[in-house]
C-alpha cells in the first residue's frame, strides 16, 4: 500500500501479520527458513519465487526496514547493512570495476575518505575531489572512466550545502551514477532521488535510530543497481541483523516528530550562538547567514540537528570549551536524544594535515553540536556557561 504522507508511510509500512494477529511487528530472530519440498527449494534458489532463504540474503525485519526507507525516499527498492560504512563500501565495491574513476565531494565522512584514498587504489579505482565552492568545476574532472558521482549534503562537520539539482543534471548529462549520503538530513528532511540521485545511502546509526543504541545502514534507489549491490552483499555478508532492523524500523515511526523537535532546538541554538561575543561564526543550513541558505531551503524541509560554530581563540579555545561542558555529552556519535559536542580538529579529524582540514572547512576553533531533545533552555544554558568559563 502506498501512502500520501511520509509520517504515515513510516508508521504503516509493515510486514504481513503472523497467525497471532499481533499489532506491532514481531522480531524474527531466525538465520534460515524452511521449504515445503524439493521443488519449492529448487524454485526458491533459482529465484523463481521471491521468498526468504537465509538471513544473509533477506529477513522479514530487514525487509520491513528497507521497504520503509525506500518508500520514504521515493526509491524502487534497497538493501540493509550492518553499518553505514558497510552500506557505502558495498555499494561502491559492487558497482565499480578496476580502472574506474569516482568524483566525490571533498567533505565526506572520514572513513569514506579512507576508502577513496587507501583501499580503492589497491583495486586500481581512482578518485577526484571537488569542494563545495567548485560544483561548477565537476564537469572538468570527468574522465572517460568516470562512473560514479558521490556526495554528502549537508557536509560533516562543515555543514556546507551542495546543490542536489545541479549534481543531478551533471550526472544525467554524463551518464554517471549519482550517489548521495543522506545521513545528516534523513528521509524526512531531504529526498535526493527527487533531484536525480540514482542511489541514496544512510547511516541508520544516527538520526534514524535516534537514541544511540544500534548500528545500521541502508542503500535505496534504482532496482537495476540495487540488484548488483544485493548480489555482492548476499555473497560478501554485510547484512543488517534482524534485531537492529526491528529497532530501526520502530525508530522510523517517530522520526518525523523527533526531527521536528531536533530542528526547532537546533535553530534556536544557532540563533543563540550568533549573538554570542566569543563566537566568530555560526553555520546552520536554515540560518539566513548561511552562504547556501537558498539552496538549503530549496532541497531541505528543515535545517537538521547539527550546528557548527567557530570559537574565537583556535584549538586551545576549542579544547577549553569542551572541558567546560557539563550537560552535553562528549561523544563521537551524533543524532542522539542527548546533545553531543565535539571538537573535530583535535579528535575525529586530527589525523588530517592542517591544510586538509582547512580544505574541508575544519577550522581550529570549530565546534560541532548535535542538538538533542533535552529542553532547549538547558542546552543553551550549558553552551552559554561553557563559552563564559
Ligand atoms: C556516521 C556516518 C557514516 C558511517 O556510518 P556508521 O553507521 O558509523 O558506519 C557515514 N556517513 C555519514 C555522513 C555519517 O555521519
Number of strands: 12
Strand percentage lies at 5-15%
**Ions, cofactors and other bound molecules:** pyridoxal-5'-phosphate
Instruction: Round the Cα radius of gyration to an integer and report it.
Output: 21 Å
What is the distance, rounded to the nearest whole angstrom, between the alpha carbons of the first and last residues?
55 Å
Cofactor: pyridoxal 5'-phosphate
GO biological process, one term: homocysteine biosynthetic process
Organism: Gillisia limnaea (strain DSM 15749 / LMG 21470 / R-8282)
EC number: 2.5.1.-
Architecture overview:
The chain is α/β, with parallel strands linked by helices and 389 residues long. It has two domains: 6-252, Type I PLP-dependent aspartate aminotransferase-like (Major domain) (Aspartate Aminotransferase, domain 2, 3-Layer(aba) Sandwich); 256-388, Aspartate Aminotransferase, domain 1. The protein contains 15 helices and twelve strands. The strands form two sheets. Strands 1-7-6-5-4-2-3 form a seven-stranded mixed beta sheet, with helices on both faces. Pyridoxal-5'-phosphate binds at residues 83-85, 109, 152, 156, 181, 183-184, 203, 205-206, 215, 217. Its cofactor is pyridoxal 5'-phosphate. Catalyzes the formation of L-homocysteine from O-succinyl-L-homoserine (OSHS) and hydrogen sulfide.
